[in-house]
């Protein structure tokens, strides 16, 4: 299944509209995921999208494959040293002003490559950060994109149910995680998931049981997991799963480039009362959040509201990680990457819009004991939301 | 297993030696893999390594975990806005000159974060690209590092033999790949492998059969594979494996941060004569290469020699990809990342040194028919080499 042509045209038109609004003459797209989003292909090269007119995808390799996949005109990149001349020749309009303004993805583009562009393009070029321009264009999903996420959600549910039937006392986190990943991969999971943030990585999520799930982590989420070594300090460890402890299954997969993110809490036997209370609060938060999931709600208010509920429940220090290791958000956009806009956090004043897809993940961390919580992914619709996650809620008792 | 303390001290001493030689006052280490290499921990933060004296790892999150793992002194990052003052206060010597020279990883550091550093640090700072400094320090491996790679090589062999016993006609590439990944993961593979190059990604390698293996690819290797969709255009596809076609198992795993990379060619039944001849040439190239795998050999000469052999065999157009989609190298260093130094390619004039670990991968691509070849990983020793790859050679006939 390839990206429909009208979809690519619409994406480019939306980016161009923003360019015109912001006085930008053109966007130089360099990152693989952004290239795929705007062309339908992910080969090595750079796409130039002028504020007006037809874009070009300059490809180094593989030109053949790019020509098959891209809905944007493909041309050979040719000599990189001539790239400035190539661009100026193709886009006289964009370079017509005495001080052309070009945007590129400062959030991901490495300094070395950026400095080459600065060297090669006309010295009059004024470079600006196009990260938000690109990320905001990608923030609102089409029906085509939502269809892929919906498919990924079905796989996540199947993997969860399979894991629930497979899990047993004494099995290690890693054994259960291996099984989940195998289930995903056999069904068409791409084998990698993508994060945009510098140094951020994600595996297929994690099985995190008891104390191992509650270990502090660099990972930009409420629970990262102990991991197998300090070299990849996240996800599942070799800890055996015990009865009576919370088992967090925070799992995701990548279908046709699109990711899903969902969490369920399992327990072999009975969870103790304090953890059950915390779990119940996570469900209460997600229900209260759902009431606000509709066009116009300001993203950050959902975080404030959740934080208020955690405080009222006396669990503020445990909310979204413990104490100094807490993260300060309630959820995040998902799409081609797992860390998309909008973030449900202070400073993100976006009003929700139809087409946004957001993972909401209230969780509570108890050092030495475990993490409990729930995470659903939602599509914002014209009138409210559609829950894309189809898995059953509540503690899943084994 | 954590990185031994003396190991970290040695790495820092080698970097500092290079800094002094190159007139650099200090290195600001920002990338997760480099942080792990120089501290033993991979939490969110930045390490400052002065040309002389003790480094500090400034950590945002998780401070607790960094303090447990790091052999470098850990301090809270505190307010990022004050980072310039923090550094100047900790490292008066490095900032003593009127024009302190600081190196950082321009090959991976995004422009946005770099601009923040430029803003926050003294305006007199002269920033230089420290990529090669860091990569050259990491190029020579210790016994500790080689031990992890050796372990990964054993797992790769076990996964290969398991795959050879499991494979059958009609099975899809994806089914076999899922099985290989499951085998790896159960044995402690971290679930991700790392590449340093911008936009480069790798899964666990690939099962590539017949025409699917030979499809052109952006992937920076001789064969990338068809993949499941244009969104992740590499690795295995849903193509069923047929008898009589070459099946490339280019697989790797990540053990305690360290990767292995090996390739074997399999065939259900008999391979046709032309492909067998090409395979034989790949083995002849690897044997000739082995004769030169010893201290003092200049890295690029191994590529030239292999290219010459491909020409003599009349297979130049098929060597390391086909025609316009060829890559221009014979091998690459491996370690914490799969694309390390030295590269066996034009322009890499490094003399081989004891401790280098290099994957050598002569392969031949036949569009519509498949890819044949072999890939072994080698350690350069004082007198020659040790083959780290332990798998049997020759076409593996099923």
UniProtKB/TrEMBL annotation, chains A, B:
Transmembrane segments: none
GO molecular function annotations of the record: aminopeptidase activity; metalloexopeptidase activity
Record domain Peptidase M24: where: 148-382
Creatinase N-terminal domain sequence ranges: 11-140
The protein, known as: Peptidase M24
